[in-house]
Amino acid sequence: MQYGPVMIDISGKALMEEERELLAHPRVGGVILFSRNFENITQIRGLIAEIRSVAKHPLLIAVDHEGGRVWRFQEGFTKLPPARYYGTLYAENKKEALHLAHNAGWVMAAELLECGVDFSLAPVLDLDKGISEVIGDRAFSRDPLVVTECAKAFIEGMNAVGMQATGKHFPGHGSCAPDSHLEKPVDPRKFEELRADDLIPFTQLSSHLGAVMPAHITFPAVDSVPAGFSARWLQTILRQELKFEGAIISDCLSMKGAAIGGDFVVRAQMALDAGCDMVILCQQERELVQWFLEHLGRETSILSNQRLAAMAGKFQNQARHAEKPIFTTEFTVI
């Protein structure tokens, strides 16, 4: 069975009839869930089960569930701190910081897997330079080595219960003030500067990540198009130099940073040609999504299908009987 190359969203807490038709389309290989799709654990389990039954072909279910302010499911889920919490604690007590980061990855992954979610789009590997508000406390630290260690602990916690990690936003969003959801960020730095700073977590963790999400940021000293549409970034640097073998999943094509000319089909084709295995299209009218799927004209390659299949959640049996780590430390979400 083959995964389609497109991940889409749905509008609410239950499926609409036209959404059932979209999910059955063979080019749909995934669904990304948001807060609007969640009411409680029973409801989300039922919704995910219905999504899978309607599709009748392999689907990946994903969600942005990082901790802190990016926390799509609320009731019944452990409220975890933002990534900055572990990075700040690292300076005072490295052992405790890494222990808590591991536990956070474990808890986050276990709770989502129990509901039928395959993976969370986490962790953030960007650097917190005090420049990007959209990143901010979602990053572990300004120090790339602290980011690497804390993220590795978080990833190992996720992996321990059967969830693959997604590192984002390659090659780094921390030095761009503009929000790529709303603007077209440009980072003028040379590749050597990026390699010595922002790229360090991605380089060090490339073998630990199941997927990477590239940023909708243009680095003109490296390529003239945003990283997610650049074969230079995705093939030459990420695949060849960093030896990354997992899936490459685009950030949403609806974002302003992805508006590089042409319609959504053109954007998707450019991203897939550059090296993405799957593209995300969300926050659009159903009619447009239907048109997009019909006109994309792309299937998933054998290699891309293997990479995407590896992202399917594999909840470890022992995790169901393990004692869930308890977070007793007070923290403040900024």
| Most strands sheet | 8 strands, parallel
Radius of gyration, Cα only, in angstroms?
19 Å
Could you name the ranges where pLDDT drops below 50 across 5 or more consecutive residues?
Answer: 329-334
Which structural class best describes the helix and strand composition? alpha/beta
N-to-C span: 44 Å
- For this structure, the CATH topology is TIM Barrel
Q: Mind telling me the CATH superfamily name?
A: Glycoside hydrolase, family 3, N-terminal domain
Kindly report the spatial arrangement of strands forming the biggest sheet. Answer: 6-3-2-1-10-9-8-7
Secondary structure elements and their pairing?
Blueprint: E1 6-8, H1 17-23, E2 28-33, H2 41-55, E3 60-63, E4 65-67, E5 70-71, H3 83-92, H4 94-115, E6 119-120, H5 144-160, E7 166-170, H6 191-195, H7 200-205, E8 211-214, H8 231-241, E9 247-252, H9 264-274, E10 278-281, H10 286-296, H11 302-309, H12 317-321
Parallel strand pairs: 1-2, 1-10, 2-3, 3-6, 7-8, 8-9, 9-10
Antiparallel strand pairs: 4-5
Give a description of the structure.
- By secondary structure, this protein is an alpha/beta fold.
- It has a single domain (6-315), classed as TIM Barrel (Alpha-Beta Barrel), CATH 3.20.20.300.
- It contains 12 helices and 10 strands.
- The strands form 2 sheets. An 8-stranded parallel sheet has the order 6-3-2-1-10-9-8-7. Strands 4-5 form a two-stranded antiparallel sheet.
- Helix 4 crosses helix 5 and helix 9 (264-274) crosses helix 10.
- It is globular and about 55 Å long.
- The termini are far apart.
- The model is unreliable at 329-334 (pLDDT under 50).
